[in-house]
């Protein structure tokens, strides 16, 4: 089951505590008439107007006189999240990469590209006059946080991933951004859509007699003649989504503690028995790993490959995305298992 606190639950808890120590205290709302993202359902979205006080993923207080409206984002999941909240960022990192890998929300042409996600051009970034910068950090003393701390602009640090609860971390990150931008009502709608999709997908898997299907989702990279395969194991977002709807993740090898990602070669993939394979349908500009794998005799001998049970997800589904990407993941599992 999903282990998380939703916006609705937070609102209920705050009411019980007379709105004390619950982050943001707002009563008034207004209809935001500023330009919106292309996200569905953005007409007449409501925005809170009161001051914002919240704690980010690493315990840092973020204080704003009013909800942020000029937001710069330095990671793709959080860019997607902001667009799902009906806000266009003033600045993003690696816009071309986002458009290559993430189709859950359309990124408009007006956002300023500030360079690489891990190494943004700070002069360009602050030239966009943001009133909030959203980053993805991995530790409380992440280098990007040290750099941004030198400037007088609030920074919201989100956790890159959490293999202990990947779905919960994804939703918590989304709701944190909603609180900072006064879009809690919109967030409640989006999270509700995701929960509905999750329930419908679980039913669809059961109706198709596919519950219990063992699977491995993977991507990978090519370095010369060497192929490195990355299975999404226990604790990965995409693996957890599969298990939430009744499938069984067959990759039990060692994974990293944040993203739940493993590392193996073709021989390692021969150990997963009869598991069905899924993989990204986006061809990495650096090289097509699946085209390379198709040439290998050992790969062809794996049951999932020899029995034509290796399925590509649709292109541009970001496997580290927000609620809207998660819905695309769920649709892909259901459609490919029919």
TrEMBL record:
Give the family from UniProt: Belongs to the bacterial solute-binding protein 8 family.
Q: Localized where?
A: Cell envelope
Name the predominant localization.
Answer: other
Q: Name one GO biological process term.
A: iron coordination entity transport
Its source organism is Nocardioides albertanoniae
Region forming the signal peptide: 1-28
Q: Which UniProt keywords apply?
A: Signal, Transport
- Coiled-coil region: none
Q: Where is the Fe/B12 periplasmic-binding domain?
A: 70-338
Q: Which GO terms describe its cellular component?
A: outer membrane-bounded periplasmic space
User: One of this protein's Pfam families, by short name?
Assistant: Peripla_BP_2
Q: Which InterPro entries match?
A: ABC_transptr_periplasmic_BD, Bact_iron-sidero_bind
- Return the protein name: Iron complex transport system substrate-binding protein
Keyword Ion transport recorded: no
Q: Which SUPFAM superfamilies match?
A: Helical backbone' metal receptor
